[in-house]
Sequence to fold (290 residues):
Amino acid sequence: MSSTSGTKRLPEQLGNTQKHYFVRTGGFVNEYPRRDTEGQLNAIGDGDNPNHLLGCFPMLFPYGEGGFETNRKHNVSYEAHSRWALRYADRRFRHDLQFIFQVFSVQQKRAICASAGFRMKRADYVKHRSAMENLTPADFKKASEEENRKKPFSNPVIRALVTHLSAVRSTVPGSNQNRVSVRSQVWSLCTVVNPPSLWITINPSDVQNPIVQVFAGEDIDLDRFNRECGPNSMRRALNIAKDPYAAALFFHFVVKATLECLFGIKAGVHRIHRTCGIFGSVKAYIGMVE
Fold:
């Protein structure tokens, strides 16, 4: 955050003098800070030295090239590069469990930061708008110190702000707000199309299934399948343990096949295509992954 004078109003310090809303644009930010040539900690970075993965995983990037979000002719997003890495032919990225969790944590953090927002009732906003516009960063810093000391906020405007604001992160998978949002959708569907006629749990066995072993790299001919051949139970379990991407891919494959072949549901990008399944035409459905 850039240094600003503590005497200016909050919208002026955020670079926006509009009175109706506050906007602060962002730029490139490193996931982890680096030290420059003078030894100073630099949290912003640049495209030539942006990424933590090159330094954390030298075995995955042995030549120090190909890191995520580095300068290249065509920009590749972090998410697209992650998918490419997990599908790499030699499977070295997906077999490194620390790499998988590291990349997932970064994406989860970015999703939370991108979707986080604050919500306030219009009446409360109109009531406190002029007072909130006069808040300064020093007021928020003081409030943060008071909160760390578990003391009540001395500034009445800060107290009103905390009382009437609520965080919104319903679009981040796995968050509590996302579960609350889906629960609201379930109750809404019950109101519109009546309660559900069927509750099912799809729990495929990944260790015993030959399809997941193919996803994990085993040479199995599914067209001429012989149950007496192939890896034994120990090797099958090890394949799943060292390749969680294959297990997740198998789960997605089974759920998608169940919905399309048994229930006649094919989910597109923006709409759902329905055909007659074993229970007829499905009016609506909601699926959650545990």
Notes: Residues 117-168 form one domain. The chain is about 45% helix and 5% strand. The chain has three domains: 34-114, 117-168, 196-290.
